[in-house]
Amino acid sequence: MTPSRPHILSPVDRLSRRTLLRMGVGGLGLSFTGLLQARAKAKSIALSGLSPLKACVVVFYYGGPSHLDTYDLKPDAPAEVRGEFKAIASSVPGLFVCEHLPGMARSMHKVALIRSMHHQNRLHDSASTEALTGRQPPTGDREEFAPIKQVFPCYGASLSYLRRELELDVPHAALPFVFHNVIDVPCQGGGFLGAAYDPLPIAVDADRQTYSAGALALPGSAAALQERRRLLSALQEQSLLGVQSSLLGKQWRLSSDKAFQLLGTQSFRDALDLSRETSQTRERYGYDAAPVAVGSGGGGGNGAEMGFARQMRGQNLLLARRLVEAGVPFVNVFDFRQQGQNWDAHHQNFAQHKSHLLPIADQSLSALIEDLDARGLLDTTLVVAMGEFGRTPQINKNGGRDHWPDCYTVLLAGGGVRGGAVFGASDRTGAYPARDPVTPADLAATIFWRFGIDPTSEIHDLTGRPWRLADGQPIRSLFV
Asked: What pTM was computed for the model?
């Protein structure tokens, strides 16, 4: 399907975005272009005894974890495929995982695996776009080296759009950064739905071990906040002169009122404060000082000089749990920021996975699942853990594995999944689906279906053009 032509902002629209940015609330994505688009209604569907989700947490392991060295080991394959890691028993009889995932081994009775995920994108940007939007990027399979406009909305954006009447304070959040260091990979925002449906970005200060949503930072005093509101009102009067009673003027007022409402939302700011957690809980999720590439070049395994930098990979998942408790229905957690610091293990795959990729990922993901369960939140919260693709069955000459979208594994926990279930299977070397192939479009349909939304519902771009919410089919058999 050919994407619509790029939307050209009107002068008033450009002014509104600049104004909000100057007021310190631009990060909320409260452009009224998104608020003026066609209003499609989501079709609710029966869930056969399941309760609809209240929240979804997507943990995105940028760079592409090796499915063969995590949840789909091949102990009987030749050495050049099997690799160095051993399989260990899990809490589910007959279900084995990597020896470096002891925490997840204990939690597999709460987890379902999709072992036949596949698509056609062999490069990070295009693969990430399809993984996080459920659609092939219109630019095709390519890496971008300059910022490009996002076309398709991410899952959280589409959900926010379809449930906009709920008027949630924060319908969608992303942390702790945009996951690419040079460019904005076009898969993390509202896309053709408009900036109003971008996630609220939450940033981390790893040295201070603190989080902040810059758009919600108070200007220092109540008087300063009131002065910002007075200035905004003045600018509104100038830019919307003559249209104050129009829909445009009303939407402008709604946007600014929403922004100032969020600035006064103490409960959400409290959710960002991890000092409210016990030291035992924070230790359970874990801290790490992960090795990162400090030399030139990209790719986690290119042999660049390795140094150490403080990370908050474990604490990020603790924050995700706090956001769910605070009522945020969709949370994206990006595990790594950029090339050289991620799962892209072209070089020394096993050393990287063993030393710094798997330990904290295992500790924090198992902690999140157990913590949600202990707090009575797991049944209504779906956790999705995935990368943009897997790794090649054949180990390369540098002891690494290369990009492999032809078959990989996605993990689901909570949200009514059948604990210990496995959907699909890879062939004997983990190269291709041997049974029940699944695409990112099917995962998208599954997420929306679990929220009680029919994946065939329509969403509309800024020109009013209709698009199907998801092009795949829900994987119903994974759920009780």
From this structure: 0.83
